[in-house]
Amino acid sequence: MRSRSNSGVRLDYYQRIVHRLILAHQEPVTGLFPASNVNSHAWIRDNVYCILAVWGLSMAYKKIADQDEDRAKCYELEQSCVKLMRGLLMAMMNQKDKVEKFKMTQSPYDSLHAKYSSKNGLPVVGDNEWGHLQIDAVSLYLLILAQMTASGLQIVFSLDEVSFIQNLVFYIESAYSIPDYGIWERGDKTNHGEPELNASSIGMAKAALEAMNELDLFGARGGPASVIHVLADEAHKCQAVLQSMLPRESNSKELDSGLLCVIGFPAFAVDDAQLIHNTKDAILSRLQGKYGCKRFLRDGYRTPKEDPSRLYYERWELRMFENIECEWPLFYCYLILFHAFQSDKRAVQDYADRLEKIMVRSEDGILLVPESYAVPQDLVGFEYQKPGSQVREVVGRCPFLWGQSLFILGRLLQEGFLAVGELDPLNRRLGAQKKPDVVVQVVIIAEDNEIRDKLAEHDLHVQTIAEVAPIEVQPARVLSHLYTYLGRNRKLGLSGRKSRDVGILSTSKLYSLKDRIFAFTPQFADLSRFYIASDNELMIDILKGEINFLKSAWDLLGRPLVTLVLKRIHLDQEKIPLAMIQTMRKLKSGYINGTRVMLGSLKDFLNTSAITDLSFLGSTEDGYPDRLHPDVQTYLEEHLLRSFSNRSTMNLRGGQLRPRTLRRRMSCKGAIKKTRSINVDSDNLGMEGPSPLTERRLSSIVPPPWLQANKQSHVSVFATTPEEGPSSPLQLGHELSVRENIYPVDPHNNRSAIDRRSEFVRQQEITVPKILIQRHRAETNFADTEVEELIAMLRETENLEEQGDILQYLVDTQGLDFNTDGLGFKNKADDNASATNSAGMLEEGRVVTVRDLLKGLYEKACQQKLWGLVRHTAGMLGKRVEDLAKAVTDLLVRQKQVTVGMPPNNEHTITAPLPEVELRQLIHDAYGDDESTAMLTQELMVYLAMFIRTEPQLFHEMLRLRVGLIIQVMAKELSRTLNCDGEAASEHLLNLSPFEMKNLLYHILSGKEFAVSSVARGNLSIVSCKSSRVSKKSQIGLGDPEGEDALIATIDDRQGQWLRRRRLDGALNRVPRDFYSRVWTVLEKCQGLAIEGRVLQQSLTQEMTPGELKFALEVETALNQIPQPEYRQLVVEALMVLTLVTEHNMVPTLGGIIYVEHLVHKANQLFLEDQRKVQGDATLCCAKIKDGKEQQQAASGMLLCGGAAYICQHLYDSAPSGSYGTMTYMSRAVALVLDCVPKHGEMECAIS
């Protein structure tokens, strides 16, 4: 017999170790590993990690198999891997009902268990007795299953198992929005059992989804039926959220060593080399110790201060664990693998040496990896004083198999028995390398010959739908329906994919089905959807965004292919809109917004595009894999006929009746406008308290002249007229008193539901002063206008705005389901036409309700692009943005909370993803009757979600997006640039087209200056200003020019710049970098910070670490109590000055509770004193000298210059720096107000 080579002898040594330490514990029946000799529970995660060493060793043997016995050893080791992976598969398949249920509920109680009995694979603890929902464990299983299959192991045996694994893919595909208990099974670090979004789970799920995509589970011997399909968009969403979270792990854990498995082996989930580097450095600098790394900051597990009798921690005791957290050698094993994959030999050696020092030798000389090291009880005091100085002792299991397994893999790599590529057959480790530029292919198809010819006139040659045959073009909803058949299995009771969403990555592929090829148009182009789809400019803008997104997100084989169909609906007065022509020309040129594109026909791109086989649509379960599933067959046949036919719109108007008098014509006017609640004029933004209603505030309550019934002039809706409302508060009082009877309800008709609703609204209006702006229908408008006549008016008016007002009134008095059948024709016997006319309302003999009339109006308004009316009717019809829930989820998972409603009274915060219906209800409740603003809120949320996907940098340092405030600021900005009052500004705002709305939002988010150029039909367009000087004079007093006219008419443009900036930053909740962690240091040195009546207690620092998101949200909540954005921003500045005081260690402690507003008001006083000395601008308002005393506050309780919260407008408008800057005054105020700062003597000035 030949002698063994050296490498063979060395491998035999490892084989003995693996056998003795790992395989000796494998249960013979199930193949699972128990947690220890005394605990028979088998955790999914630990089991998968344990077997990795066995898999690695088997591949090492395969390479040097020079003798039969080596091949045998290799096979034995491989079969141990198969045995374990199948054992876990069986345990999970026993819980198949949970997988099915979880797809719907995503509830922690319906999740797969995290651990099973190693004896029989059955559950060992109840659904609610353990934090079972650990997406990273299931994901790790799928990832390693994919890698092992790719390395040649056969783990899955039957098609039923393939179906089950396909459903496991659905189970993890929404990981980016499912809070779970994470890698340490804790959730929130206080261990009270609250799940949270964990970056380590999302990263592992992303890796598993990418590894599973298009993988044949039967290896080289499989066919189409054993292939797993993943929708690329789901993996990409996980990636986007992961990138926005790192290096943070979750809300309560600002950092976690568990992220090492996401940025390196086994997941390799991050594509951005810089982000990998930053995350690793953060872990090393804050969590690494002599004995390994801490799991996360203030981790109390197994520390001497932990109370072992209870599972959870009290919030105040977390501070005790600081600096004495256990250190885990496991993470050195991860770091060795991390650097081995980076082929950084020096770092590998460094960590190997460190690890060797802390490993424990067994009696027979084998090195063991212990679970963790803790500070001994008697040395805790010394460790607190000098962290890292004391000798620690081993606690927990030894050997710790998870760590031991990774240690052995590291050794095999170091000694050259394995190459890194063998541990990663799917090449995931190459993800962070630079990729070549993506070329996006675009195909434009005309709906019919007429449109094709119109395009040809512009030298754009395209094919029609008929001409591209045999390739079939379908809308995205067909693809989403086909995907519901994926993973269905009757025997296992699994129902296939639940989510209806198909993103741009999925529709940018071609699909083959038997001998047919399908191309799908993107989801955003689906016209049956929301009204924003009828704004061509917005659709083009979204298209550009999606093409840009494909450039960065596409990582499949082949090039992405975007297919668009140009339809009749897109035409504007029978012409192709100019914006579309320009975009197509740009596409033809080969570049659009910096992305390379190719415009061509479908058949040109067949060879270069990605093609996916839809083989799962066959009837495999009935034994006919080659035939289409009968349901699919019928669906496709029906759909091919239907997909691109147009719907006819309903006709509202009957024949021409004789015109009424103008007075009657005007009597419904403004019904819609009265429902608006955007409030711009009130000087103290959003504060509708019981302040006395004097002259200044009338503008927001009195309807402008064109809304009053008896005015003869027919004022255009877009005109802005000067205020000429009633001038005495007495009249106003009268108007408010008639409010009791707002809805004239016919007593004989039993319409109890409507009565109840109006009763409710009435109570609302009497109790809450804020609703002053909403619905004060003076009943004189309508008391004499019978429903009959209204309907007749409705028929004869051409003007859609008027139809809207009439229908608004009908909805309020009669309800949406009121039948208008045959009304409006009484007493017209002389009119022979009446019989034929009634058909106009009856519409082929069926009942026509007010709702049907509204629908018709909505469709017309969409065609005519009357956006204000569109938004309002959409709201009344209860339409909702299809992607609303998705949009809100997109914002939430990137750690941005969303609030809706106008602050401060009606603000609702959304902190967790909600279903569509609940969201819609919440938004509706927040705005009461104001349908237009409720619709606008939904629309803005969709735009915010678009921006956060494409330009996440806009949202830096913002934690909550307060949509109500953003709407108010948008209106204020319009009123500033247009120089109009608030009423007109909110009217303009609601009439902006969706494209311009998105544009305005963008300018406000990015803080860019903009101007408004007016376009025909009253539509405005928002233009960026290159220079910061805007041509219009900016006015400080908004919407009430009376007092300041003389004062501010001629001041130059820079006036108002800082005020505007503070107002924007305050409304967007933007704060300076590291603001929250710096506030933490201030809080540590004083007993509390009081902001607007809320006190942040020092105890928060006991519970939370400086960089923790939960702490930031606490501070944010306190700041959000301040309703005026600019005032909030000054409070932030005051806090920054306090942080400078603590950071420069000027004083050992700041004393008791600090009232931050006192500092701001003190700074204001100092400012005014200086202004008097130098005769500055403020002497005209707040710094006026009268009888040697300061001027009394104006009777209205407002300052003369209209500054918010009694702070002079001119202070808001001062730059932060400079000798008259706000920071200077704040610093002086701090020195004066705080007792701890010495009043006399020399002191070094740190704030310069």
How would you describe this protein?
Pathway: Glycan biosynthesis; glycogen metabolism. This protein has 1248 residues and is of the alpha/beta class. The protein is built from 45 helices and 31 strands. Strand 3 and strand 4 (292-293) form a beta hairpin. The chain is globular. Residues 645-666, 682-780, 824-844, 1027-1053 and 1187-1198 have low confidence and may be disordered.
The global form is globular
Rg, please?
Answer: 35 Å
Largest sheet: 5 strands, mixed
Structural class: alpha/beta
End-to-end C-alpha gap: 84 Å
The count of strands amounts to: 31
The helix tally amounts to 45
Mean pLDDT: 80
Which bin fits the share of residues in helices? 40-55%
Number of domains: 7
| Approximate strand percentage | 5-15%
Taking pLDDT < 50 over at least 5 consecutive residues as the criterion, the unreliable ranges are 645-666, 682-780, 824-844, 1027-1053, 1187-1198
Keywords: Calmodulin-binding, Carbohydrate metabolism, Cell membrane, Glycogen metabolism, Glycosidase, Hydrolase, Lipoprotein, Membrane, Phosphoprotein, Prenylation
Subcellular location: Cell membrane
InterPro entries: 6-hairpin_glycosidase_sf (IPR008928), 6hp_glycosidase-like_sf (IPR012341), GH15-like (IPR011613), KPBA/B_C (IPR045583), PHK_A/B_su (IPR008734)
Pfam families: Glyco_hydro_15, KPBB_C
